[in-house]
Each structure stands twice: as C-alpha cells, then as structure tokens.
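Long-time lurker, first post. I've been practising inverse folding by hand and with some scripts of my own, and I keep getting stuck on stretches where the structure tokens seem ambiguous. Below is the full token string for one chain I'm working on. Before anyone asks, I'm not after the true native sequence, just a reasonable design that respects the backbone. If someone could post their per-position residues I'd love to compare against what I wrote down in my notebook.
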C-alpha cells in the first residue's frame, strides 16, 4: 500500500491564525463596548426565524461548501424552528441539507472547480491525497472519524482523491448524520434548557464516539495486517 496521507501540516497556516485573532478581537470589542451578548443573540435568532426555514436550510446546504462552519447551523436549527416545524422535521431537514452539501462539494472537487480547489487545499495547509484505489474506502473512514479537519476540507479532499461516489456518500452519511442529529438536539436543549433533549443528545454523542472509535480501531488493525 502506498499513500500520502491528507494530513494538516505541523505549522498552522496564517489564515487559521488570522481567523482566531479576528474572533478574539470581535469578542473583545463587544465586551469593551458593553454589548449585551444575550440580547444580540436573541436578535440574531429572531432574524433567522423571520427569514424562515427555506432560506435557513438552503443556506445550510450551500454555504459550508464555501468554508462556512456547520456548527452555527446545527446548534441554532432546533431553537429557531423546533417549535414551528417539530424537532423530527428539523433534524431531517438538517440531515438533508448536509447530504446535499456533501454531494455538491464532491461534484465541485471532481470536476467543476478541481484546479481551484487543489490550490485552496494546499494553501490551507493540507496535503492532496495520493492513495491506491483499494485504500480509498479506508481514506474516507479515517478522514470522517478523525477530528480536526474542517468539514468542507474533508469533502474536497475526498473528492480530489477520486473516492467512488457511493462509497463517499454511504460512509459520510453514517458518521455525519449521527453527529448532526446530536448537535441539533444539543443546541436546542442548550438554548431552551430542555433536560430530556440534552439527555437524548448526549446519548447520540456517545453513539457517535463509540462508532468513530470502532471504525478507527478497525482501520488501524486492517492497516497493520497489510503492512
């Protein structure tokens, strides 16, 4: 087996440092200006509710492909639309939105924006995967279950590596769906103070951790056996 792992470089790229510093600077500005962050958050949630679920979930399906983090969507979806639509529908729409995003990102990486994405991935400090055909499934598993690599970078790396579409979709959905459901439920429980929902979300988190650990151990054993 010959492979060049798609792993981050040891030195984080300047763009990551810049983002962290920007977030800290904005937070410090709000604190120094005496801004009521709770009130600011409630206003933002009201704008989200006013925009409606169609706009929200369409944005959730498209914007992560541009590097927008997924967590602001998953953590606010339940609080914004749970009462209006019901939590099962909110969770289902969240899963659908991220599935569309994964398919969209894969299509961009495979064809439409391949040269641009190759440049972007390298610029962000990630190596392009060079993996034998028989190891593409293992690459998909290890990228999805290893924390640290941003969601959109995972999608692009797997698309650039040439992972077969159905392998990419099936493995990704197994992992991403569990974490997404847990984050949606946890976000609603956190913002609304729902103890029962927090317990359910915690159970999903445990299931996700157990699943990812099992997949990583299985991958490690398989890799050791081939060596």
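-- Answer (accepted) --
I ran through it position by position. Result:
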């Amino acid at each position: 087996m010959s492979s060049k792992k798609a792993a981050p470089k040891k030195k984080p790229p300047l763009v990551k440092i810049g983002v962290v510093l920007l977030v800290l600077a904005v937070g410090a500005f709000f604190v120094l200006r005496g801004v009521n962050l709770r009130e600011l958050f409630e206003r933002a949630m009201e704008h989200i509710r006013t925009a409606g679920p169609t706009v929200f979930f369409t944005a959730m399906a498209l914007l992560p492909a541009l590097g927008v983090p997924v967590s602001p969507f998953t953590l606010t979806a339940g609080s914004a639309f749970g009462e209006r639509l019901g939590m099962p529908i909110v969770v289902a729409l969240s899963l659908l939105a991220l599935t569309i995003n994964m398919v969209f990102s894969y299509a961009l990486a495979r064809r439409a924006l391949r040269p641009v994405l190759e440049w972007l991935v390298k610029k962000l400090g990630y190596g392009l995967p060079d993996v034998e055909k028989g190891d593409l499934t293992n690459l998909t598993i290890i990228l999805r279950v290893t924390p640290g690599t941003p969601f959109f970078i995972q999608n692009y790396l797997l698309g650039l590596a040439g992972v077969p579409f159905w392998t990419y979709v099936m493995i990704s959905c197994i992992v991403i769906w569990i974490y997404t459901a847990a984050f949606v439920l946890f976000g609603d429980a956190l913002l609304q103070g729902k103890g029962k929902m927090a317990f359910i979300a915690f159970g999903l988190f445990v299931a996700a951790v157990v699943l990812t650990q099992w997949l990583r151990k299985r991958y490690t054993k398989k890799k050791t056996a081939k060596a």
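A couple of notes from the structure itself: Residues 137 and 171 are 8 Å apart (CA to CA). Residues 9-24+37-219 form one domain. Happy to go over any region you disagree with.
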